[in-house]
Every structure is written in C-alpha cells, then in structure tokens.
Amino acid sequence: xxxxxxxxxxxxxxxxxxxxxxxxxxxxxxxxxxxxxxxxxxxxxxxxxxxxxxxxxxxxxxxxxxxxxxxxxxxxxxxxxxxxxxxxxxxxxxxxx
Length: 97
What we know:
mainly alpha
C-alpha cells in the first residue's frame, strides 16, 4: 500500500465507513485494510471511530477536516484547521446539524 491509500483509509475510516467498503473503493483486499486499521488505532466499530476523530486530530496535531499535519505557532492559540477553506467547511457542517 502506498501513502495515498493509507491516507484515504484513514479519512474514510474517520467518516465511519467499514473495512469492506473502503477495500472495494480503493481496490485493495479487505484483510489489508483491516490489518492497517488494527495497527494504527482505527479498529473497532466504525461509528465509534468516527466519533473519536476530533480527539485523534487534536492529539496528533491534524486538521479537523482534511487530516493534514498542522504547524503550530510557538506562542498564542493552537490551530485547528490548515486553511480558511477547511475552517469554512467545518462551520458550514456545524450550522447544518
């Protein structure tokens, strides 16, 4: 598996998709997706994984929308988003709830 596929697995898993769905969309064996998820803390119920996404992003310094690594400032408020586009998407999603 290459880095793009790994990133896609992480994103899809955080959206609450199951192993079989992810494997079918990426054209990879279900067992490989399942093993990757187990080794990287993405295993278990897909709904619980989706609910834990904001916590994982905060702990790993990632954008809440696109999972990109954030460069945090040395002083001041910590970033939650990598760009204005992601911040706007987050606000629109919250408004729709």
